[in-house]
Write a structure and sequence with these properties.
By secondary structure, this protein is mostly helical. The chain has one domain. Helices cover 88% and strands 0% of the residues. It contains three helices and no strands. The mean pLDDT is 86.
């Protein structure tokens, strides 16, 4: 009995070990790919939102559009661009991305105004 087990391990042990190692590496690789894809998609979503918010700001200045209409137009653009890029995005996430991009845009404007403000003597 012990001889049969020893012979089996000697003959098939390395093959079984290679199979197990390949499975583990494949599993880890899939996990890494999912993390990288999520990171890239998150960055692409933020970039799309920033671009759309800036574009809508410019477009709406000339068309005198404000408030909810501006938000809807921006959400529509974000949804379209995300779909074109194969990125799934929900309504709540779109709203959060718009708010984040608007905050960043306002912060940039405020920083630029502070830099150009006259110095009091």
């Amino acid at each position: 009995m012990g001889n049969i087990i020893s012979q089996f391990i000697a003959e098939y042990g390395s093959t079984i070990l290679y199979t197990i190692i390949t499975g583990i590496i494949g599993y880890v690789g899939i996990g890494i790919k999912m993390l990288i894809t999520k990171y890239i998609n998150d960055n692409r979503k933020r970039a799309i939102a920033r671009t759309c918010v800036e574009a809508v700001e410019q477009i709406c200045k000339t068309l005198d559009i404000h408030g909810e209409e501006k938000f809807k137009k921006c959400a529509e653009y974000i949804s379209g661009l995300a779909k074109e890029n194969g990125i799934k995005i929900g309504e709540t996430e779109i709203k959060m991305l718009i708010e984040q991009a608007v905050h960043a845009l306002n912060q940039n404007v405020n920083d630029a105004l502070k830099e150009n403000a006259p110095v009091e003597a």
